[in-house]
Automatic annotation (TrEMBL):
Residues 73-264 form the NfeD1b N-terminal domain. InterPro entries: ClpP/crotonase-like_dom_sf, Membrane_assoc_protease, NA-bd_OB-fold, NfeD-like_C, NfeD1b_N, NfeD_membrane. Keywords: Membrane, Transmembrane, Transmembrane helix. This is Nodulation protein NfeD. Residues 438-490 form the NfeD-like C-terminal domain. The chain crosses the membrane at residues 276-296, 303-320, 332-353, 360-382, 388-406. The keyword Transmembrane helix applies. It comes from the Bacteria. Pfam families: NfeD, NfeD1b_N, NfeD_membrane. CDD domains: Clp_protease_NfeD_like (cd07021). It is a multi-pass membrane protein. It is found in: Membrane.
Length: 503
């Protein structure tokens, strides 16, 4: 989600929009009533982040509790820059740690021009459900998605010169290109999210809606056709902000927590890594490296560096998108099934048929669903699929190039079998005993689906059909011998041949 601020703000937001050019400004999975497990971080995922956080140097376990030292504890967490799905695990962790420490409050210092709607909704739900007092300290701006997060806090404090609002969703295009309006249903959804949040926190409903929808008119505040953005003074006047504060000490005084012990929370390495891995550019790069490694591994003997690199890249891709609630078991199973089908198509099933098509479709579907949400427009869906297809083509082209170059490189010669075996030195591609079957006729002793057993000249032979499923008892003919693989085709009856000629 981005905003439509004033011209000056557009210039300030330009670097943010460039970083967000591939991000959808659409309805989140949580907001559309899709899988509810994606609307809130599941407990076991929170436990996973807790275990990862233990690896970060922190305060000793023997720290006195607030009751022991007599001072209340307050957590301070920053929300700044782009609001993306990688921010949600950090907010959830801070809320859980603060609740476990029986802290008096969690203060979120907000300074953002916005970001993704679905990310803001996940954070909004966490704030509304938090068992601890939450405070939004707007210093200096809470625009777009930042406004929704601020409204979800129990109390809002604003610094002098602060702003809040301008939250209509737009679709961001290429860097430098103007933002495009979204469909009315998206605006309607976001408007109601703001209204529901304002209802929960007893804040002015129309004021919240006017931040999203330009059709909302409030006499004396905003006219129809304009988006509402409030300054600190206006937010205080209209009941959006609870109090004014320019420093953290001032916020603590207003909360009647002077002298409280402040614990400053920052994203740990795992949360920073997740935000990095879910960036569109890096996620596309991970897909390319993963597919490149897998293709090279299938074309080289044994299992080595390409396969390990491919699996590691694919694991990093899904790990990051799993933790930010974009990818689930469905997407992972689709990708794994696609890879299995493609391997079967290459090594087991002759030719290229249904298995190959299904494998490519499953691979594209799983990877594409892992980078888009359930409210995305068709334009964004096509863009996401195009990005995945582009990554796969880059991987395919790079693999063909590397396979040509590897035999010329010292390192590559260790991976490629260069020794050629002629008929006098080893085995020919097809032994004469196998070549003798070419053109022979027989009967399928077992169903050929596609591999099976046939009887040819009173001899049981392992054969493979050329793609057609052949039932037991059907007449067959050997049409090709590939190495030690004998490929057969079903013989048509005279009636079938006549019908085929008529058609």
């Amino acid at each position: 989600m981005t905003t439509i601020p004033e011209k000056e703000m557009n210039r300030a937001c330009l670097p943010l929009k460039a970083a967000m050019d591939e991000r959808p400004s659409e309805i989140s999975r949580a907001g559309q009533g899709s899988r509810r497990r994606r609307a809130r971080l599941p407990q076991w995922r929170a436990i996973l982040f807790g275990l990862l956080a233990l690896l970060i140097p922190g305060e000793p376990l023997g720290q006195p509790s607030p009751a022991e030292n007599g001072r209340p504890v307050v957590y301070l967490a920053p929300i700044e820059g782009i609001i993306d799905l990688g921010l949600a695990p950090f907010v959830n962790r801070v809320l859980e740690e603060a609740a476990g420490a029986e802290a008096a409050a969690v203060i979120f210092e907000i300074n953002t021009f916005g970001g993704r709607v679905d990310a803001a909704v996940v954070i909004r739900d966490a704030l509304l459900n938090a068992p601890i007092q939450t405070v939004a300290f707007i210093n200096k701006r809470a625009i777009s998605a930042g406004a929704l997060i601020s409204l979800a806090a129990e109390k809002i404090a604003m610094a002098d010169g602060g702003t809040i609002g301008a939250a209509t969703p737009v679709q961001v295009g290429q860097p430098g290109a103007p933002a495009q309006p979204v469909e009315e249903k998206t605006v309607s959804y976001v408007r109601k999210e703001f209204r529901a949040t304002a209802e929960s926190r007893k804040r002015p409903l129309l004021v919240a809606e006017a931040m999203v929808d330009a059709d909302v008119e409030i006499p004396g505040i905003i006219e129809k056709g304009k988006l509402l953005t409030l300054t600190t003074e206006e937010a205080m006047e209209h009941g959006v902000a609870d109090f004014r504060a320019n420093t953290l000490e001032s916020v603590l005084e207003q909360l009647e927590l002077p002298g409280a012990e402040v614990k400053r929370a920052t994203p740990n390495w795992a949360e920073r890594l997740v935000r990095l891995l879910t960036h569109p550019v890096l996620s596309s790069l991970l897909i390319t490296v993963a597919m490149l490694g897998i293709i090279l591994e299938l074309r080289t003997p044994g299992f080595g560096i390409p396969g390990g690199l491919g699996i590691a890249s694919l694991a990093l891709f899904f790990w990051g998108h799993w933790l930010v609630q974009l990818a689930g078991w469905e997407e992972i199973l689709l990708v794994v099934s696609g890879l299995v089908l493609l391997v079967m198509e290459i090594f087991v099933i002759p030719g290229f048929g249904v298995a190959g098509v299904l494998g490519i479709a499953a691979l594209l579907g799983g990877l594409s669903l892992s980078v888009i949400g359930a409210g995305a427009t068709w334009a964004f869906i096509l863009k996401a699929v195009g990005r995945v297809v582009f990554s796969l083509f880059i991987a395919l082209g790079a693999s063909l190039l590397l396979l040509r170059l590897l035999p010329r490189l010292p390192f590559g010669r260790r991976l490629i079998l260069e020794t050629g075996l002629g008929a006098g030195e080893g085995y020919t591609s097809a032994p004469e005993s196998d070549r003798g079957w070419l053109g022979k006729k027989g009967i399928a002793l077992s169903p050929l689906r596609p591999a099976g057993i046939a009887e040819i000249e009173e001899e049981r032979v392992d054969v493979v059909s050329d793609g057609e499923l052949i039932e037991a008892g059907q007449p067959i003919k050997v049409i090709r011998v590939d190495g030690n693989r004998i490929v057969v085709r079903r013989l048509r009856t005279s009636t079938e041949r006549s019908e085929h000629e008529r058609t």
